[in-house]
Design a protein that fits this description.
The protein is built from no helices and eleven strands. Strand 7 and strand 8 (83-91) form a beta hairpin. With 142 residues, the chain is an all-beta fold. It has a nine-stranded antiparallel sheet with strand order 5-4-3-2-11-10-8-7-6, with no helix packed on it. It is elongated. It has strands spanning 19-20, 23-28, 31-36, 44-48, 53-57, 62-66, 69-79, 83-91, 95-96, 101-113, 127-139.
Length: 142
């Protein structure tokens, strides 16, 4: 009995186009953080703690590239002669090819003690931190 072999030629798979994510939707319980740079490269961050929504844009959002990733920081509150409260999201570089990518990131809530003279007048740490892990997605928005 004769057998024949049929050669099937496969077209090469198209090259995967990867771009940097510019839209991050992060959640932890009732809390949500949305960060984007897709509107003309201008940074925008919205933080909802489950009760109140805070929105920041442009110069209100500090971006700092570090070995850990990009530190995205906003000032949540500043009370003279008492404290400054910051929110910092540590964002890794995320490459996407169309579909959103899942990620977990640390979010650091910092309290900086203040006094009318500058640094606190009592002993102890000036900065204290509360670190939470948020999960969500990163995507590229045109």
């Amino acid at each position: 009995m004769a057998t024949s072999t049929l050669a099937v030629s496969k077209a090469p798979a198209p090259a995967l186009t990867l771009v940097d994510a510019n839209y991050f939707d992060l959640r932890r319980g009732k809390s949500e953080i949305i960060f984007t740079t897709h509107l003309g490269g201008r940074p925008m961050l919205t933080y909802n703690d489950g009760r109140t929504t805070h929105s920041f844009s442009g110069a209100e959002v500090s971006l700092r590239a570090t070995e850990l990733g990009t530190l995205v920081t906003v000032t949540l509150a500043a009370t003279p002669d008492l404290e400054v409260r910051l929110l910092t999201v540590v964002l890794p570089q995320v490459r996407v090819s169309g579909a959103p990518e899942k990620l977990d990131v640390p979010v650091i809530f910092t309290r900086i003690a203040m006094s009318i003279a500058g640094p606190p007048l009592n002993p102890g740490p000036v900065e204290t931190y509360d670190v939470k892990i948020y999960d969500g997605t990163a995507s590229a928005v045109p």
